[in-house]
């Protein structure tokens, strides 16, 4: 994947078709950044017929694209995750980042030089904006941090 990304950067006119076992979101995003002409990303286990594979190779060589539906779904899912965090204010993102570092509300308040109540308000807003309702079975703080880390 790194070689494919580097090849596209140094020779943008070259068609590149990646055949991978799984989706590498970071590299897929880099590979598809800029021009999407002459680029493809297929998953090995989903290339069932030789004819489909050859069609994809020819399409990419001619400047077209060949993207596995799973690659597209994961990249769109990633965008939606980032959109969720986009609804947070800069201060809420900062608080969530400190939560991800394992800080307590009191420690966050000391670091940001605000009251404990202000931090609690930010944490409540974060839960609300991330759609994390109170639940007996889930720990909202952990779920919020996982959302942050996945973005």
UniProtKB/TrEMBL annotation:
<dbReference type="InterPro" id="IPR000792">
    <property type="entry name" value="Tscrpt_reg_LuxR_C"/>
</dbReference>
<feature type="domain" description="HTH luxR-type">
    <location>
        <begin position="81"/>
        <end position="151"/>
    </location>
</feature>
<dbReference type="InterPro" id="IPR016032">
    <property type="entry name" value="Sig_transdc_resp-reg_C-effctor"/>
</dbReference>
<keyword id="KW-0804">Transcription</keyword>
<keyword id="KW-0238">DNA-binding</keyword>
<dbReference type="InterPro" id="IPR039420">
    <property type="entry name" value="WalR-like"/>
</dbReference>
<dbReference type="GO" id="GO:0006355">
    <property type="term" value="P:regulation of DNA-templated transcription"/>
</dbReference>
<keyword id="KW-0805">Transcription regulation</keyword>
<dbReference type="Pfam" id="PF00196">
    <property type="entry name" value="GerE"/>
</dbReference>
<dbReference type="GO" id="GO:0003677">
    <property type="term" value="F:DNA binding"/>
</dbReference>
<protein>
    <recommendedName>
        <fullName>HTH luxR-type domain-containing protein</fullName>
    </recommendedName>
</protein>
């Amino acid at each position: 994947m790194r070689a494919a990304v580097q090849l596209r950067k140094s020779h943008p006119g070259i068609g590149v078709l990646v055949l991978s076992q799984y989706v590498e979101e970071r590299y897929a995003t880099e590979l598809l950044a800029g021009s999407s002409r002459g680029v493809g990303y297929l998953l090995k286990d989903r290339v069932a017929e030789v004819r489909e594979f050859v069609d994809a190779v020819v399409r990419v060589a001619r400047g077209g694209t060949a993207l596995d539906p799973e690659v597209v779904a994961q990249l769109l899912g990633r965008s939606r995750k980032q959109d969720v965090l986009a609804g947070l204010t800069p201060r809420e993102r900062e608080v969530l980042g400190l939560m991800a570092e394992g800080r307590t509300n009191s420690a966050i308040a000391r670091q940001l030089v605000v009251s404990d109540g202000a931090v609690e308000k930010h944490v409540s807003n974060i839960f609300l904006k991330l759609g994390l309702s109170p639940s007996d079975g889930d720990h909202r703080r952990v779920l919020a941090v996982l959302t942050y880390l996945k973005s």
